[in-house]
Structure formats: C-alpha cells, structure tokens
Amino acid sequence: MSAGRPLPGDVVDDAIDQPFWDACKDGVLLVYRCNTCGTSYWPAGSCTTHGMSDAGWVPATGTGRLHTWTVVHQKYSRSFTDDVKIVAVVKLDEGPFFHTNLIEVATTDLRAGLPVEVVFHTGDDDVVLPVFRVST
Fold first, then answer.
1. Are 77 and 9 in contact (CB under 8 A)?
2. Backbone angles phi, psi at 24, to 5 degrees
3. 69 - beta bridge partners?
4. What is the rounded CA–CA span in Å between residue 70 and residue 130?
5. Looking at residue 15, what DSSP letter applies?
6. Pairing relation of β-strands 55-59 and 30-34?
7. d(CA 89, CA 68)
8. Could you give phi then psi for residue 134, rounded to 5 degrees?
9. Tens-digit pLDDT profile for residues 6-19
C-alpha cells in the first residue's frame, strides 16, 4: 500500500463532501439533491438523471430500508473496533443507496426491506459516522 493512501472506510476530507461530514457532527444526515429535477444521489459531477450540475446538500429523513448486507469478521478500518461488523447498503427514503454499518441487530434478524434509521457514532479518532439500526 502506498504511504499516505487512506484505508477503505477512512474518512477523506474533500471540498464536495465537507458539508456532509460537518452535518454528521450535528446529528444530521444530508443527501445531494438536483435543484432542477429533485433527484437525490451521492455527490457526482452532474445529476444522474439528466446531467445538469445544479445541485446541493439537503437534510434527509435518516430513514430507509435494508437493501443488502454482509457480515465482516475482520477489522477493515482504523476507525472501528475489532467487533464483527454488518456492512450494509441502505436504500434511503429519498432514493439514493447509502453504504453503511448496521448496529444493534442480530445477523439472524436481517432481511431485505427491513426498515432502518440513522444514528451517529463517534469513533476513537473523533470522526462522526452515520450508521443505521432497525427502526424503533
């Protein structure tokens, strides 16, 4: 691995994502939304629907449904403990898919379509990460 290259899962500071990470510190999940058509998507150079570049960050509901997951038994980031992790893809109610971790749920209780909600956890390195749990 090259010196200075981040590990998978590490938070990388860059200008387009900074509002997202700042909002996480305040307990708010943001999505990137096209100002022309209203499509929400993860930041990209242009809208995934029609290619326009007029978009910005907006608050999300923080809810969605479990789309898929895998159980990881090995630590994959300096930000996490050595505990077993459930790495998941959540389809947010706003539309985009969000890669995350699931917490506070047994692996035997997982099923596609399970309703989930965001919570924010601060890692040992003081980075605030959005993770999801089963909706209460």
1. yes
2. -60, -40
3. 88
4. 18
5. T
6. antiparallel
7. 5
8. -60, 135
9. 444 555 666 788 89
